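USER: If only I could read backbone structure tokens as easily as an amino acid sequence. It would mean a lot if you studied the pair and described how this chain folds. Here is the record:
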Amino acid sequence: MNLFYQLQLFHQIIDHLADELLLIRSDGQLVYVNDAAIRGLGYSREILLAQNIISFYKEKMTPRQWQEKYFHQLKKKRKPAVYQIQRIVKGGRIQAIQVTAVYMRFQGEEYVLSVGRDISEKLEMEISLKESQDRYRLLSEGAADGIFTVDLNGRVTYANRALAQLMGLTLPEAMGTHFKNYVTKPSLPKAFACFAMAKSGHARIREEIEIIGRNREIIPVEVSVSPLYQSKKVVAIHAIVRDIRKRRRLENLLIESEKKYKDLFEDANDALIIADLKGVILDANRQAENLFKKSKLAMIGTLQEALFSKNQVVFYRQLFKESLLGKSKPYDLEIIRNDGKTFPVAVLGRRVKVAEQDVFLGRFTDLSERLKNEEQIRESNKMAALNLFISGMGQEIKYPLEVIFNHLENMVGKYKGRNFEYIGFKEFKDIMMTIQNIRNEVSHCCAITDRLLTFNKRRVGMKRRGCQVNEVLKNALGFFAQEFKKTNVKVVSKLTANLPPAAIESVELEDVATCILENSLQAMPTGGKITLVSSFKKEEGRVVIEFRDEGVGIPKENLERIFEPFFTTKQASSNQSAGLGLSIVYSLVKECKGDITIKSSLGQGTQVKISLPAFKNHNHTRKE
């Protein structure tokens, strides 16, 4: 083999090396680079051989400094040295290079032969591995759960602080011991089964077992067991141990609570039905079976709305929707029993959580007895009102009749036994005065009966409808227009536009407004101001009317009796009311499920406030 061929072979071998080979002169000038170095640095051979080695170092230094740090040290040692540097390659990328360098001398020249290997990825992996190990150690030691590893023989190779505290051991005591020493005898089969499955490569096994803790205490735990791999082979078993004593106590409490709930559910006085959020019945208690005349099994799985009459379903759906949104309020509805008969119930729905599931809980209260009692109370109230009416009417009419009787008795006593053909002027005047007084008292009695008869006739056969409040109020003000002008009363109207209809007949509201305005007029004989305001409270669904005057006011002691029939603060006479006005107003407002309040102060005037529900064709929602 000739020398040229040997040199060619030598160059082929050098260029095929995976490591970078550089020959560096004593002043740092590159004199030879192999193909691996060209690829690593990213420049052509011509460019590289024109450079000094320090131009690729990240650390800034002069050629003299390079000689001091590397060349002279290698020359002094006269044997290979290994060190790491950081260099900058084409594109500005920084690489970590492990260098094996040696001093050499050839034909009177001194050189450094450097073999380099890029270890950037290796270092990054080592750093990542260390960070991962640090994180694992930090998480493991800071974890609330116990963590341990065992070898394939089941002996403990690692245990964290939490596990040592749970077991009542020190870490050195646990190391090298078999895990079976800490498991109760009844739980050993489960523990060994988990161990065997993990050894065979099952990804994660979870089981509840009992272990022996401090002072031989039996501790229920949940273990999660996983295999640890190295080169795709299972080399150890990793386990996480969670103390579940608190959970067990909570589970027992939950079981007791659910049992109590079930007892309360079954023993409730009202019918209770549980449905899912789509309205499908999940459960029903005994009272529900009695109320609907259906068995629980017949109801479960059916839609809850099927329990209601056809014309009631729309209101049930509204109740169901509001209940799921947390807007619970009772509805008076009609259900249909298994025998086809309808039945009145009060329904209250709520969204509750049962066994970790959101459900609808419906409470159905039988209204038949309540409605019967209410009817009896109404009849009783009617009789009481009739008795009061008869008593008040008797008293009201008795006074003018007594006056009439006294006048006639006086006339009979004065002229009895007198037989004369001529009546003198004085006697005639006396007789006419008596007749005038009698006529006034009779007129007063007629006014009382006419008012009652007129009120009754206007309400006979009346159908319940709503009315436009502002329109009725304007009509009532127009009725008193001349009186306002005559008595120097100023009227201020603040009527809100676009009010919804109120749930009262127009004729009823007209009676109410007329009575209140008449009282205001009589309270201001020398004039004043009447303020009339209408508004709508959307959140309550109610129309509000306020009457305010600047009259003489009502004494505090009379306010409590102001709505009593035949109670009045005015002197009884032929031209004053019989004290029925405000009692009728009160009855009308209350009959329409409205409210009326009166505030008054002597010398400062009176305020009457009326609140009426907005009119709806069918309003099944009731107030508590």
Summary: The mean pLDDT is 83. The radius of gyration is 53 Å. The chain has 19 helices and 20 strands.
